[in-house]
UniProtKB/TrEMBL annotation:
Protein name: tRNA 2-thiouridine synthesizing protein B
Pfam families for this protein: DsrH
Any Gene Ontology CC annotation: sulfurtransferase complex
Gene source species: Ectopseudomonas guguanensis
Entry superkingdom: Bacteria
SUPFAM superfamilies, alphabetized: DsrEFH-like
Record GO biological process: tRNA wobble position uridine thiolation
Length: 99
């Protein structure tokens, strides 16, 4: 059963990103929102870990949060708006928010 994992906390504050990456299934997706988009900063271990995920795992980031933090979505990441975020929540069988 495919799951959409949603992270909103900075990857520099705790280990949620690392824990999430260990649990991702081949058909899962990861959506970065809020401070979690800091994982996409160039030349960081977090970005390298995200880029090493299997290609079958979809990676998304909220475009509003990227813009608010002055970040660009790397090629591997699809920037989405809020309507697309809602659509993603309906596309996957389960949604897991990493609170």
């Amino acid at each position: 059963m495919a799951t959409l994992h949603i992270l909103s906390h900075s990857p520099f504050a705790d280990s949620r990103l690392a824990s999430c990456l260990r649990l991702l299934g081949a058909d899962d997706a990861l959506l970065l929102s809020g401070d979690a988009v800091y994982a996409l900063q160039p030349d960081t271990a977090n970005l390298q870990a995200l880029q090493l995920m299997p290609a079958s795992v979809a990676l998304y980031a909220l475009d509003e949060d990227l813009a608010a933090r002055g970040l660009q979505a790397p090629e591997r990441v699809r920037a989405v708006d809020y309507p697309a975020f809602v659509e993603l929540c309906t596309r996957y069988a389960k949604v897991n928010s990493w609170l």
